[in-house]
Amino acid sequence: SGINAEYGQTAYYASVREDANIGYKILTVKATDEDSGSNSAIVYSIDRDIYPDNNKFMINKYSGDITLQGSLDYEKDEKIYLAVKATDEGTPPRETRVFVNIEVIDVNDNQPQIEI
Question: Is 14:26 a contact under the CB 8 Å cutoff?
């Protein structure tokens, strides 16, 4: 029936330590589509048109798993925002977006400095 893929919520929230390892799974985005067959098959992507400078995360296009692919630094990126796009495989394809807000958690990674 051409219904857009629908997310279960309007935004996702997660937190990750700034020393998390590459490949660390942040969260899973899930969309559903009421169509059947290939019209209901959903693929996920990070919409870099909305937040183009953020390349520290990747998404598995089939599972919706968002994982870390670059190092984080709380002192530079306390909060990170992603736009995730879900697209069905119908003709024409239908799509929708959801926002992901990621809070970077500070760890004690800087030495104190004595000023003279």
Answer: yes
**Tens digit of each residue's pLDDT (9 = 90 or more) over 38-84:** 777 899 999 988 887 778 999 999 999 999 999 999 888 899 999 99
Residue at 6: amino acid letter: E
- Choose among 37, 82, 41: nearest CA to 63: 41
Q: How many CB atoms lie within 10 A of CB 20?
A: 17
Q: How far is CA 98 from CA 12, 36, 49, 61, 95, in A?
A: 8, 22, 14, 15, 10
- pLDDT number for residue 108: 73
Whether 79 and 13 have beta carbons less than 8 Å apart is answered as no
Secondary-structure percent of the chain, ordered helix, strand, coil, rounded to 5:
5, 40, 55
CA-based nearest residue to 59, from 96, 85, 80, 81: 85
Peptide bond into 92 cis (omega under 30): yes
